[in-house]
Design brief:
The protein has 15 helices and five strands. It is mostly helical and about 400 residues long. Helix 5 crosses helix 7. The termini are far apart.
């Protein structure tokens, strides 16, 4: 005060608070300023519009009481505080421990289709009651995937190559016959060597009942795991008679099974007709079918009607038709080759280019692989014929019967 006394503390504190409030208010943009700035942007200028009336003047701040430290002006205090904060953050970040560096992990190399097929086959065989619970040796022979039981003796390399070539021939022949059909991607068929003959028969025998399993049956295309099961004696030097024909026939079945959708089997005449056509490549199959069917019909012994050809399901069904028409009980299945002649000649007839039959057949074949099924007459109509009898009559004319 003018008389030298120390100013009253409460009064001084109140004056400081008022000064700080005014400083804070002056540091914040007023609503009028923000509105003028917005109008300026809308007009295309950064210069704020001139207000209609000047705002009421602020009361002059009260002088700071003597004996107190005056507030630091904001034009000096704000930059100083920002600099101090920046220094503090820099020091704190330098003291923070760095996160450990994790080097990138290399992705495993992609498997080839043959390697992927072997892995998939092993996984499917795990649940097999006969072949499961074993360790398998993986091997590529001529780019064909093989699984050998770990306990098996080394196979004859020449025989393994013979079977690999036969499987490759089956693939190539089927692709050529069915060129133009809807493409269905599938892994390569895996040749799986049964550990024993009894293990092979445990799989093959139930699939052809009631027909007996011949000692010369050495391969079978399994539908479930989609592999070609090979009897172990096949790999002995020399091999059984008709080795390649049997393997090619069964490899064709396995090739078809690998491309099927769902659990429904393919029509028997389609599977057997294609498999017979592939295994009899190089032979005059058309003439063989003409002679066999003609001879049986001439003797009144052809057991298969048009409907039975197109609707018979499974080998057991075809064997029963043959048994009922057999001329003697001692050979109940002697007429079964008639079904194969009907099936093979029907497939050859439908694959013929004449009359647009091939194009319709290939379209129907793709839908059948995808799970489509129909009765005999429905199948015939899908193939471009009025009914099953009309289809077989057209096939007979093509054969020359």
């Amino acid at each position: 005060m003018a008389d030298g006394r120390i100013p009253d503390g409460d009064a001084t504190d109140e004056a400081l608070r008022r000064a700080l409030r005014r400083a804070a208010e002056e540091a914040r943009p007023r609503p009028e300023f923000r509105e003028r700035l917005r109008e300026g942007f809308l007009e295309g200028s950064l210069v704020p519009a001139v207000p209609d009336a000047a705002p009421a003047p602020e009361a002059a701040p009260a002088p700071a009481p003597a004996g107190r430290v005056l507030p630091i002006p904001r034009w000096l205090a704000y930059p100083a505080a920002a600099a101090a904060l920046l220094v503090g953050l820099s020091v704190a970040s330098s003291l923070r421990p760095e996160a450990p560096f994790d080097p990138p992990v290399a992705s495993p190399p992609a498997l080839s289709p043959a390697e992927e097929a072997m892995v998939a086959a092993e996984r499917r065989l795990v649940a097999d009651p006969v072949l499961g619970g074993r360790t398998w040796q993986r091997r590529l022979v001529g780019e064909r995937p093989w699984l050998f039981p770990a306990e098996a003796a080394s196979a004859d390399a020449a025989e393994v190559e013979v079977i690999s070539r036969a499987m490759a021939d089956a693939d190539a022949t089927l692709r050529r016959l069915l060129e133009g059909a809807p493409e269905r991607a599938a892994l390569p068929v895996v040749a799986v060597v049964a550990p024993t003959r009894s293990a092979f028969e445990a799989h093959a025998a139930p699939l052809i009942e009631p027909l007996p399993l011949s000692e010369y049956t050495i391969a079978f295309g399994l539908r479930g795991p989609r592999v070609l099961l090979i009897a172990p004696e096949t790999l002995a030097p020399g091999g059984p008679p008709c080795e390649e024909m049997d393997i090619v026939h069964e490899a064709a079945h396995a090739w078809l099974h690998a491309r099927m959708d769902g659990a429904a089997p393919l029509p028997l005449w389609l599977e057997e007709g294609l498999a017979d056509g592939v295994s009899m490549r190089g032979m005059d199959a058309r003439e063989w079918c003409r002679k066999l069917i003609g001879a049986l019909r001439g003797a009144g012994l052809d057991p298969f009607s048009a409907k039975q050809v197109l609707e018979t399901e499974g080998i057991a069904g075809a064997a029963e038709v043959a048994r009922q028409a057999a001329p003697c009980d001692e050979r109940p299945y002697s007429l079964l080759p008639a079904f194969h002649a009907h099936a093979q000649s029907l497939v050859m007839f439908l694959l013929d280019e004449e009359g647009g039959r091939r194009e319709r057949f290939l379209g129907w074949f793709g839908r059948t692989l995808a799970g489509e099924r129909a009765d005999a007459d429905g199948t015939a109509r899908a193939l471009g014929f009025e009914n099953a009898d009309a289809l077989i009559e057209a096939r007979d004319a093509w054969l020359g019967l």
